[in-house]
Design a protein that fits this description.
about 160 residues; mainly beta; 5-stranded mixed beta barrel; 3-stranded antiparallel sheet; about 35% strand
Length: about 160
């Protein structure tokens, strides 16, 4: 017998990493193949060797390809937190998506993506932040139409707007 839920939190969470921020009509999600490591939802990805492949960013020259979009496709595991290696990946290239940020951000902040040397949480490869971190991050809003649309504290969820071709 399943025990019914009897406790309800006063504050519901905003969402989870990689979840669409809304159901707007201008959402583009492309399917690509994750050819390398397991990827968490809500992380930036780069173009792989072929156009239909994505990888975690590995250097400052990595071409930004979008953000991993939350999905249970390919798995019956409802606790799935990411995309296993060598499987299809849903990559959001247009629309609004929730991402966990490494530093405090505002809508006026620049958008940088980590590609190396993640330190203590919330730092992680392919997460986003407002400022450069030495040579370990790459700015993605100066080449692509990407911007923060909400404010968030370090370790919080922010809305990242994507408007890529």
């Amino acid at each position: 017998m399943t025990i019914p839920q009897i406790n309800y939190p006063d504050d519901m969470p905003k969402g989870i990493e990689g979840q669409s921020a809304d159901i707007g009509s201008d959402n583009h999600i492309r399917t690509r193949v994750n050819v390398t490591n397991d990827m968490e939802f809500g992380r930036g990805v780069s173009v792989g060797v072929n156009d239909d492949e994505v990888i975690l960013p590995t250097n400052v020259a990595a071409a930004f390809a979008g953000v991993t979009h939350f999905s249970h496709s390919g798995s019956d595991d409802t606790t799935q937190t990411g995309i296993p290696a060598k499987t299809p990946a849903n990559i959001k290239t247009k629309g609004r998506i929730l991402v966990l940020v490494e530093t405090a951000v505002t809508p006026a902040s620049q958008v940088h993506m980590r590609h190396a040397n993640a330190g203590a949480s919330p730092e992680a490869i392919a997460r986003f932040r407002a400022t450069a971190d030495g040579a370990d991050t790459v700015r993605v809003d100066d080449v692509h139409s990407v911007k923060f649309e909400s404010s968030a504290a370090a370790g919080g969820l922010a809305v990242l707007a994507l408007n890529m071709p």
